[in-house]
Amino acid sequence: MLINAKPIQKDKLNDQVYDQLCALLRQGEFIPGQAVRVARVAEAFGVSAMPVREALTRLQAIGVVANVSGRSLGVPSLEYDELTDLRNVRLEVEVLALKWAVENRDDAFLADLERLLDKLEAFERSNNIQGYVKANYEFHVRLYRQSKSPVLIDIIDTLWLRVSPHLYQLDRKKQYKVSNEHHSNIVKAIRAGNNERAMHHLVLDISDAYEDLMKTLFADSHQT
C-alpha cells in the first residue's frame, strides 16, 4: 500500500496532500471497506497527520470516503443501489461531455486519443492492471476535457474518485479487451464527426464495465 506515494513539498501543503490522495484513490491504493491509516499516509507523504486529516475531511464532504470502522475513514464498500446510481449519473454527465467534445474536436485532440489508445492496448497485452486503470482514467479525462466545460469536468472528477477504487475488481482479462474495443470505436466515431455513434460506444463502455463489476460484487444477491 502507498507504493506510489511521493513526499509532499511544503508550499501549498494542504492542496498537495489532497491532490496526491486523489491520485492514489484513482490508482487503487485504497481498498474499499478498509480504513485509511492516517499515520501511514502522513509518513509516506513526509507530512504531519493534520493535512492528511484535512484532506480526508474534504473527500468525505463529497462522498468519496466515509466512516468504515468506528470513526476511521476509508473508501466505502458501495451497495448495489449506490453503484447503479453512480452508473446512471455517469451515463448522463459523461455522454453530455463527450457530445460537446466531438463538437470541439481538433487534430491535437485526436492525436492525444490515439496515443492514449496505444497505451491502453499495450497495458492490456501485458496485463498491467495499474497501468491500464490509470491510462483508462487519462483517456476518459482527455475526452471530457475537450468539452471545454469546467463545471462538467469537476462533476465527472468527483464521480471518478468515487468509482475508481472499485474498478480494480473487474474481470480484468475479459473487461479490458472489451473496453478497448469500445475506446477504439469512440475514437473512430470522433474522427468521423459522428456524435451519435461516439456517444453510443461510450454508453456501452460504461455499462459493460458496471455489469461486470456488479456480477463480481453481487453475484449471489442480485441480477443485473
What topology, given as strand order, has the largest sheet? 1-2
Q: From the helix content, strand content and strand pairing, which structural class follows? A: mainly alpha
* Largest beta-sheet characterization: 2 strands, antiparallel
CATH topology description of the largest domain: Four Helix Bundle (Hemerythrin (Met), subunit A)
CATH superfamily of the largest domain: GntR ligand-binding domain-like
N to C succession of SSEs:
HHHEEHHHHHH
Computed CA radius of gyration, to the nearest angstrom: 18 Å
CATH class group of the largest domain: Mainly Alpha
* Shape summary: globular
Mean pLDDT score, rounded?
88
Q: Approximately what portion of the residues adopt beta-strand conformation?
A: under 5%
Task: Give the second-level CATH assignment, the architecture of the largest domain.
Answer: Up-down Bundle
Low-confidence stretches: none
